[in-house]
Design brief:
Strand content: 35-45%
Structural class: alpha+beta
Number of strands: 22
CATH class of the largest domain: Mainly Beta
Helix content: 25-40%
Strand order of the largest sheet: 2-11-14-13-12-16
CATH architecture of the largest domain: Beta Barrel
Order of helices and strands: HEEEEEEHHHHHEEEEEHEEEEEEEEEEE
Number of domains: 5
Number of helices: 7
CATH superfamily of the largest domain: Efflux pump adaptor protein, beta barrel domain
Largest sheet: 6 strands, antiparallel, barrel
Shape: rod-shaped
Low-confidence stretches: 28-36
CATH topology of the largest domain: Elongation Factor Tu (Ef-tu), domain 3
Distance between the termini: 76 Å
């Protein structure tokens, strides 16, 4: 090999070694820098400051009648109107005659049975005077008080077992009870208003022939109404303890007050809340209508030491705080919420809160907090 070739080969080898050394040195530096990025992480934090706060909490619901029922009869016949011509929206008062079924045939049947009872007693009046002379006046007065168009008077009291057996054998007891049964059935031809209310809907008109159980109308109580409010599980005990609420309309005006009537015994699956039912009493001069949407407001529901943190910092009632450059999980109680913030209890003053909930990374050896203004 020529001397010039040897020199050229040597120079090339030296240059290759130098370039390899430089590339290897840059790679190590890059690795160190990447490792440095994995070792230290800067995180947004908030220094906790607990204060005493009084929260105003709202919930929304719809007004519904406490009582809503169908008008129907247990008897068959021609439907007649009562003291009012009822249409949807019509109002009525307690004991108003809403509907009646034609009872002319029933009336004559009942009158005939009362006449038969009178005839039966008259036929045995002589035996009563003979066997029970001291009871004659009582039974004679009873016969005279039987009126075919009026309710039967009370049955006389039998003062001896012999007297009782006598009237039982003559069929007087059986006939009297049969007539009382017919009188009771006669009352089923009338439907009296069970409360002050209004007509929700009408399904049959006067003049139609109805069968037992036919739905004629639907009525609702307009004096006793209620509102179902969904309440967050964590606020359930607070609502029960407070008891009363103020109701507002869509214009944020106070329209009434209410108190707890009852509470649900299970969680509403669709809202994951507990339903509480409140009465609603309108303020003087205010009308509250069925199916109206209202806002229930409770002032000073909670008055205790708490802090306000972003909702992004909480997951399943837990947060992370920064302590000695490490992230430590801590449980908190959510007391209330407002937009994207939460009112929580369980954090101490000067705790350093991680503002964006994140599980710790094992590769991160040191966390450095940057307080967000």
């Amino acid at each position: 090999m020529k001397k010039s070739q040897i020199i050229l080969f040597t120079v090339t080898l030296v240059l290759t070694g130098i370039i390899y050394a430089i590339v290897l040195s840059n790679k190590k530096t890059e690795i160190k820098e990447v490792k440095g990025e994995e070792t230290i992480k800067y995180i947004p934090i908030q220094v906790i400051k607990n204060t005493n706060r009084s929260l105003k909490t709202n919930s929304y619901g719809q007004v519904t009648p406490y009582t809503e029922l169908d008008v129907a009869f247990e008897v068959q016949g021609k439907l007649n109107k009562g003291s009012l011509l009822l249409k949807p929206g019509s109002q009525f008062r307690f004991n108003d005659l809403l509907y009646k079924v034609d009872s002319e045939e029933m009336f004559y049947t009942l009158s005939a049975r009362k006449a038969q009872l009178s005839n039966l007693l008259i036929n045995i009046l002589a035996d009563i005077e003979l066997d029970f002379p001291e009871e004659f006046t009582k039974w004679n007065t009873f016969i005279e008080s039987i009126d075919p168009v009026s309710y039967l008077p009370d049955f006389p009291i039998c003062n001896s077992e012999k007297e009782k057996m006598f009237f039982t054998a003559k069929g007087v007891f059986a006939e009297y009870l049969n007539i009382k049964s017919l009188e009771s059935r006669m009352s089923k031809y009338l439907f009296l208003a069970p409360f002050n209310g209004y007509v929700v809907d009408v399904y049959a008109e006067p003049g139609s022939i109805i069968n037992p159980g036919t739905r004629i109308a639907r009525i609702a109580n307009m004096e006793n109404m209620e509102v179902k409010l969904p309440v967050a599980i964590e606020l359930y005990d607070k609502f029960k303890e407070k008891g009363a609420v103020q109701f507002l309309n869509s214009n944020n005006e106070h329209i009434g007050t209410g108190k707890i009537i009852r509470t649900a015994n299970s969680i509403n699956q669709s809202t994951q809340s507990i339903d509480i039912y409140y009465s609603i009493k309108p303020l003087p001069g205010i009308s509250i209508l069925s199916n109206q949407y209202v806002t229930a407001e409770i002032d000073n529901l909670i008055s205790e030491s708490m802090c306000v943190i972003p909702s992004s910092a909480v997951k399943k009632n837990t947060v992370y705080i920064l302590k000695n450059e490490k992230l430590i999980k801590k449980s908190v109680s959510i007391i209330g919420s407002k937009q994207d913030s939460l009112f929580v209890d369980g954090l101490n003053n000067q705790d350093t809160l991680l503002l964006e909930y994140n599980e710790p990374n094992k590769k991160i050896k040191k966390y450095i907090g940057i307080e967000r203004q």
